[in-house]
Design goal:
two-stranded antiparallel sheet, nine-stranded mixed sheet, alpha/beta, 25% helix, 255 residues
Length: 255
Protein backbone atom coordinates (compact mmCIF):
# COMPACT_ATOMS: atom_id res chain seq x y z
CA UNK A 1 0.00 0.00 0.00
CA UNK A 2 1.08 3.58 -0.59
CA UNK A 3 2.37 5.43 2.48
CA UNK A 4 -0.19 7.85 3.86
CA UNK A 5 0.92 11.47 4.07
CA UNK A 6 -0.72 14.20 6.13
CA UNK A 7 -0.16 17.80 5.02
CA UNK A 8 -0.94 20.01 7.99
CA UNK A 9 -2.18 23.51 7.31
CA UNK A 10 -3.02 26.55 9.44
CA UNK A 11 -4.36 30.03 8.71
CA UNK A 12 -1.84 31.61 6.35
CA UNK A 13 -0.43 28.39 4.91
CA UNK A 14 -0.19 28.80 1.14
CA UNK A 15 1.95 25.94 -0.18
CA UNK A 16 -0.23 23.02 0.84
CA UNK A 17 -1.62 22.29 -2.64
CA UNK A 18 1.86 22.11 -4.23
CA UNK A 19 3.00 19.87 -1.38
CA UNK A 20 0.05 17.52 -1.93
CA UNK A 21 0.94 17.22 -5.62
CA UNK A 22 4.59 16.46 -4.78
CA UNK A 23 3.67 13.67 -2.37
CA UNK A 24 1.15 12.22 -4.83
CA UNK A 25 3.69 12.30 -7.66
CA UNK A 26 6.12 10.49 -5.36
CA UNK A 27 3.59 7.71 -4.80
CA UNK A 28 1.98 8.60 -1.47
CA UNK A 29 -1.69 8.79 -0.59
CA UNK A 30 -2.27 12.31 0.73
CA UNK A 31 -4.74 14.06 3.00
CA UNK A 32 -4.79 17.74 4.00
CA UNK A 33 -5.65 18.41 7.62
CA UNK A 34 -6.19 21.62 9.59
CA UNK A 35 -4.22 22.17 12.79
CA UNK A 36 -7.52 22.61 14.64
CA UNK A 37 -8.60 19.10 13.75
CA UNK A 38 -5.30 17.60 14.94
CA UNK A 39 -5.48 19.55 18.19
CA UNK A 40 -8.95 18.12 18.77
CA UNK A 41 -7.85 14.56 17.96
CA UNK A 42 -4.07 13.92 18.24
CA UNK A 43 -4.70 10.22 17.56
CA UNK A 44 -5.38 11.32 13.97
CA UNK A 45 -1.63 10.91 13.43
CA UNK A 46 -1.96 7.16 13.93
CA UNK A 47 -3.32 6.79 10.40
CA UNK A 48 -0.30 8.35 8.68
CA UNK A 49 3.36 7.63 8.00
CA UNK A 50 4.47 11.16 7.09
CA UNK A 51 3.56 14.59 8.39
CA UNK A 52 4.43 17.75 6.45
CA UNK A 53 4.21 21.35 7.61
CA UNK A 54 4.33 23.30 4.35
CA UNK A 55 5.39 26.85 3.59
CA UNK A 56 3.49 30.10 3.81
CA UNK A 57 2.89 32.69 6.50
CA UNK A 58 1.11 30.78 9.25
CA UNK A 59 -1.02 33.06 11.42
CA UNK A 60 0.36 35.96 9.39
CA UNK A 61 3.76 35.57 11.13
CA UNK A 62 2.31 38.18 13.49
CA UNK A 63 4.64 37.25 16.38
CA UNK A 64 7.52 36.11 14.16
CA UNK A 65 7.77 33.48 11.44
CA UNK A 66 6.10 30.24 12.51
CA UNK A 67 5.97 31.21 16.18
CA UNK A 68 2.22 30.81 16.84
CA UNK A 69 1.99 27.54 14.89
CA UNK A 70 5.05 26.30 16.82
CA UNK A 71 3.52 27.14 20.19
CA UNK A 72 0.44 25.09 19.35
CA UNK A 73 2.55 22.10 18.28
CA UNK A 74 5.02 22.37 21.12
CA UNK A 75 2.47 22.63 23.92
CA UNK A 76 -0.53 20.53 22.91
CA UNK A 77 1.00 18.04 20.49
CA UNK A 78 4.57 17.41 21.64
CA UNK A 79 3.79 13.96 23.08
CA UNK A 80 1.81 12.90 20.01
CA UNK A 81 4.56 14.09 17.66
CA UNK A 82 7.18 12.30 19.72
CA UNK A 83 5.25 9.03 19.49
CA UNK A 84 4.77 9.56 15.75
CA UNK A 85 8.52 10.00 15.24
CA UNK A 86 9.49 7.13 17.55
CA UNK A 87 7.29 4.64 15.71
CA UNK A 88 9.07 5.50 12.46
CA UNK A 89 6.95 8.36 11.15
CA UNK A 90 8.65 11.02 9.03
CA UNK A 91 8.18 14.74 9.68
CA UNK A 92 9.01 17.32 7.01
CA UNK A 93 8.99 21.10 7.48
CA UNK A 94 9.40 23.36 4.44
CA UNK A 95 10.33 27.05 4.83
CA UNK A 96 7.70 28.30 7.30
CA UNK A 97 7.32 24.67 8.31
CA UNK A 98 11.04 24.51 9.10
CA UNK A 99 10.67 27.64 11.23
CA UNK A 100 7.77 25.95 13.03
CA UNK A 101 9.76 22.78 13.77
CA UNK A 102 12.71 24.78 15.11
CA UNK A 103 10.59 27.01 17.32
CA UNK A 104 8.61 24.03 18.59
CA UNK A 105 11.87 22.41 19.72
CA UNK A 106 11.59 19.45 17.31
CA UNK A 107 14.67 20.58 15.38
CA UNK A 108 17.49 20.03 15.86
CA UNK A 109 16.24 18.31 19.01
CA UNK A 110 18.24 16.98 21.92
CA UNK A 111 20.14 19.45 24.09
CA UNK A 112 19.90 22.09 21.35
CA UNK A 113 16.16 22.62 21.83
CA UNK A 114 15.43 26.25 22.73
CA UNK A 115 18.91 27.48 21.74
CA UNK A 116 18.26 27.57 18.00
CA UNK A 117 16.45 30.01 15.74
CA UNK A 118 15.97 31.06 12.16
CA UNK A 119 16.86 34.75 12.12
CA UNK A 120 16.39 37.50 9.57
CA UNK A 121 18.44 37.26 6.40
CA UNK A 122 21.73 39.12 6.61
CA UNK A 123 20.82 40.85 3.33
CA UNK A 124 17.94 42.55 5.13
CA UNK A 125 15.69 41.51 2.26
CA UNK A 126 13.10 38.90 1.44
CA UNK A 127 15.02 36.52 -0.84
CA UNK A 128 12.97 34.88 -3.62
CA UNK A 129 15.17 33.12 -6.19
CA UNK A 130 16.91 29.87 -7.07
CA UNK A 131 19.87 28.47 -5.14
CA UNK A 132 22.23 25.55 -5.53
CA UNK A 133 22.42 22.96 -2.77
CA UNK A 134 24.42 19.92 -1.80
CA UNK A 135 22.66 17.10 0.08
CA UNK A 136 24.67 15.39 2.80
CA UNK A 137 21.90 13.04 3.67
CA UNK A 138 23.18 9.72 4.85
CA UNK A 139 21.45 10.44 8.18
CA UNK A 140 17.95 11.14 6.87
CA UNK A 141 15.75 9.11 4.50
CA UNK A 142 14.67 12.32 2.75
CA UNK A 143 18.13 12.62 1.13
CA UNK A 144 19.76 9.60 -0.46
CA UNK A 145 22.83 10.95 -2.29
CA UNK A 146 25.16 13.94 -2.51
CA UNK A 147 24.34 15.04 -6.06
CA UNK A 148 23.88 18.85 -6.12
CA UNK A 149 20.34 20.10 -6.65
CA UNK A 150 18.69 23.43 -7.37
CA UNK A 151 15.60 24.69 -5.57
CA UNK A 152 13.85 28.05 -5.13
CA UNK A 153 13.89 29.95 -1.85
CA UNK A 154 11.33 32.51 -0.67
CA UNK A 155 11.93 33.76 2.85
CA UNK A 156 12.89 36.72 4.99
CA UNK A 157 13.92 34.76 8.11
CA UNK A 158 16.07 31.84 7.03
CA UNK A 159 19.43 32.32 8.77
CA UNK A 160 20.04 29.22 10.89
CA UNK A 161 21.69 30.18 14.19
CA UNK A 162 22.49 28.46 17.47
CA UNK A 163 23.04 30.21 20.78
CA UNK A 164 26.67 29.09 20.73
CA UNK A 165 28.59 28.87 17.42
CA UNK A 166 30.28 25.70 18.66
CA UNK A 167 26.84 24.09 18.80
CA UNK A 168 26.44 24.59 15.05
CA UNK A 169 29.79 22.92 14.51
CA UNK A 170 28.69 20.05 16.76
CA UNK A 171 25.54 19.60 14.69
CA UNK A 172 27.64 19.50 11.56
CA UNK A 173 29.99 16.89 13.04
CA UNK A 174 26.95 14.84 14.07
CA UNK A 175 25.75 14.87 10.47
CA UNK A 176 22.56 16.80 11.25
CA UNK A 177 23.20 19.64 8.80
CA UNK A 178 22.12 17.53 5.86
CA UNK A 179 21.61 20.19 3.18
CA UNK A 180 24.02 23.06 2.46
CA UNK A 181 24.10 26.10 0.21
CA UNK A 182 26.94 25.78 -2.31
CA UNK A 183 28.71 28.04 -4.77
CA UNK A 184 29.23 27.46 -8.50
CA UNK A 185 32.01 24.96 -7.69
CA UNK A 186 29.67 23.00 -5.40
CA UNK A 187 31.53 24.09 -2.26
CA UNK A 188 29.49 24.90 0.87
CA UNK A 189 29.46 28.65 1.40
CA UNK A 190 28.26 31.32 3.78
CA UNK A 191 28.85 34.01 1.16
CA UNK A 192 26.01 35.98 -0.41
CA UNK A 193 24.37 35.51 -2.87
CA UNK A 194 25.00 31.74 -3.08
CA UNK A 195 23.95 31.59 0.55
CA UNK A 196 20.76 33.70 0.52
CA UNK A 197 20.45 34.30 4.27
CA UNK A 198 23.90 34.00 5.88
CA UNK A 199 23.30 30.68 7.67
CA UNK A 200 26.40 29.51 9.51
CA UNK A 201 27.95 26.26 8.26
CA UNK A 202 25.98 26.96 5.03
CA UNK A 203 22.97 25.26 6.65
CA UNK A 204 19.94 25.04 4.36
CA UNK A 205 18.38 21.94 5.93
CA UNK A 206 18.71 20.18 9.28
CA UNK A 207 17.49 16.88 10.70
CA UNK A 208 17.16 15.63 14.26
CA UNK A 209 19.33 12.88 15.75
CA UNK A 210 17.01 10.16 14.41
CA UNK A 211 16.99 11.59 10.87
CA UNK A 212 13.21 11.23 10.78
CA UNK A 213 12.48 14.94 11.39
CA UNK A 214 13.80 17.13 8.58
CA UNK A 215 13.39 20.82 7.86
CA UNK A 216 14.70 22.96 5.01
CA UNK A 217 14.30 26.56 3.88
CA UNK A 218 14.23 25.92 0.09
CA UNK A 219 10.99 24.70 -1.53
CA UNK A 220 11.23 21.20 -3.06
CA UNK A 221 7.49 21.16 -3.80
CA UNK A 222 8.00 24.02 -6.27
CA UNK A 223 10.31 21.97 -8.49
CA UNK A 224 8.68 18.63 -9.28
CA UNK A 225 8.57 19.00 -13.08
CA UNK A 226 11.64 19.86 -15.19
CA UNK A 227 9.95 22.89 -16.74
CA UNK A 228 9.46 24.51 -13.32
CA UNK A 229 13.09 25.62 -13.56
CA UNK A 230 13.57 28.99 -15.33
CA UNK A 231 16.42 27.52 -17.41
CA UNK A 232 14.87 24.14 -18.02
CA UNK A 233 15.70 24.07 -21.72
CA UNK A 234 19.40 24.57 -20.93
CA UNK A 235 19.61 21.89 -18.27
CA UNK A 236 19.11 19.08 -20.75
CA UNK A 237 16.46 16.35 -20.77
CA UNK A 238 15.35 15.34 -17.29
CA UNK A 239 12.48 13.16 -16.19
CA UNK A 240 11.55 15.23 -13.16
CA UNK A 241 12.46 18.25 -11.06
CA UNK A 242 15.13 18.07 -8.38
CA UNK A 243 12.67 18.64 -5.55
CA UNK A 244 10.65 15.53 -6.31
CA UNK A 245 13.64 13.39 -5.30
CA UNK A 246 13.18 14.41 -1.67
CA UNK A 247 9.60 13.14 -1.63
CA UNK A 248 10.46 10.00 -3.58
CA UNK A 249 13.27 9.15 -1.15
CA UNK A 250 10.87 9.37 1.77
CA UNK A 251 8.23 7.22 0.07
CA UNK A 252 10.84 4.62 -0.86
CA UNK A 253 12.05 4.40 2.73
CA UNK A 254 8.50 3.71 3.91
CA UNK A 255 7.58 1.19 1.22
Amino acid sequence: MSPRALVLRAPGTNCDEETVVAWERAGASVQVGHIGRLLADPKMLDGFQTLTIPGGFSYGDDLGAGRIFASRLGTALSDALGRFRDRGGLVLGICNGFQVLVRAGLLPGGTHAGAVTLARNLSGKFEARWVKLRPLGSKTPFLADDEPIELPVAHGEGRFLTGDPSATEALDRAGQIVLKYVDDQNHPTSEYPSNPNGSSMAAAGVCDATGRVFGLMPHPERFVDPFHHPRWTRRGPRAEGDGLRIFRNAVKSLS
